[in-house]
Design a protein that fits this description.
Helices cover 53% and strands 14% of the residues. By secondary structure, the protein is of the alpha/beta class. Strands 1, 2, 3, 4, 5, 6, 7, 8 and 9 form a nine-stranded parallel β-sheet that branches. The protein is globular and about 65 Å long. 34% of the residues are buried.
Length: 332
């Protein structure tokens, strides 16, 4: 009996010693995590200060420095978010897993959804290609009746992006909107035939938006026909809002339909600095309203590379990217 007691006491002592070693190990991990978190935040703040001073010294016209300051300043805002998972590891002593609680820590709510739509695909497969390599969700609208329309739509789907029909419509300026267009004065049967043929040409698509179309967008009767076709084909409609007098939202309300509405054009001024400014406007709208739909074009030089360059920044800023159909259909 005495021998058994000694063995039990010995096992308890070893167990106690092992627990103490584990606690010491976890304390060391906690300390290292805190040091790394502080170092990360300090490095980001230092970078932000450096580039901010550089921007000031070179003047606002020097875009490179100014944009760098903006980028690093935004990363400073996220330094705490980077540090939190590391500091949380200090709570894992009881779990015995140095990473479990960091993974289970609550995620911050999204600051808003960003939806990027790229119009005028079908004109050039070469111009389309960089957008297909974009890392996040993207909606791309395809013009009908062009030699590369069907191929463009197929490549968009193969790349995992969302395809829309970019339906040509009559504008107030009187310019020719392209093949497969609809015009005021057309009968309903003709409008239906044209739009359904265009949809079938690049099918399957998730929705439709208007190419030009300021005159058509002001015609209540035709807009109701267009939206009814969208309902029949089970696709969404995005109003590109090429006119402030669009009646599409009112027509959708009468038909008890949800549609999307463009918030920002990205490339009215296609230079890099202007596009950055338009994107910032979109981020602000998303933060205020929960989402923002921003439209650009395949033919704008450097737009695809700029979106890719900014993508990780938006994620760090806690925005989420989505597609037109997911937004309109209320999907998370």
């Amino acid at each position: 009996m005495k021998a058994t007691g000694k063995k039990a006491w010995s096992r308890a002592k070893k167990s106690s010693g092992g627990s103490a070693k584990k606690k010491k190990k976890f304390s060391k991990q906690i300390f290292q995590s805190k040091i790394l978190a502080i170092a990360t935040a300090g490095a980001l703040i230092s970078c932000a200060l450096f580039f901010s001073l550089l921007a000031v010294s070179l003047g606002k016209k020097n875009y490179a420095a100014e944009n760098a300051a903006f980028v690093f300043a935004e990363y400073v805002e996220s330094a705490r978010e980077l540090a939190e998972p590391l500091l949380i590891s200090g709570q894992t002593e009881e779990t015995g897993n140095g990473h479990a609680l960091a993974e289970d820590s609550p995620k911050k709510p999204s600051r808003g959804k960003l939806i990027f739509v790229i119009d005028d695909a079908g004109n050039s497969l070469f111009e389309l290609e960089p957008f297909l390599r974009f890392s996040g969700p993207l909606t791309i609208a395809v013009l009908p009746g062009l030699p590369d329309s069907a191929e463009a739509a197929q490549r968009i789907r193969d790349a995992g992006k969302e395809a829309l029909l970019h339906q040509p419509m009559e504008s107030l300026g009187g310019s020719y909107p392209g093949p497969g267009a609809i015009f005021t004065g057309m009968e309903e049967d003709e409008i239906r035939s044209i739009i359904n043929d265009n949809i079938d040409e690049i099918w399957p698509v998730a929705g439709m938006n208007n190419h030009e179309g300021s005159r058509i967008s002001m015609d209540e009767e035709i807009m109701e026909i267009i939206l009814t076709i969208c309902r029949e084909r089970d696709i969404v409609y995005l109003d590109s809002r090429t006119t402030g007098e669009t009646v599409a939202p009112a027509a959708a309300l009468r038909l008890d339909m949800r549609i999307g509405e463009r918030d920002v054009f990205l490339d009215n001024d296609p230079d890099r600095e202007s596009i950055i400014g338009y994107i910032k406007t979109g981020l602000s709208k998303a933060g205020q309203n929960g989402s923002a739909i921003m439209i650009g074009h395949t033919f704008t030089p450097g737009l695809a590379s700029l979106l890719e360059e900014q993508y990780s920044l938006w994620i760090t800023q806690n925005f989420t990217l989505s597609t037109v159909s997911e937004l309109i259909n209320g999907l998370p």
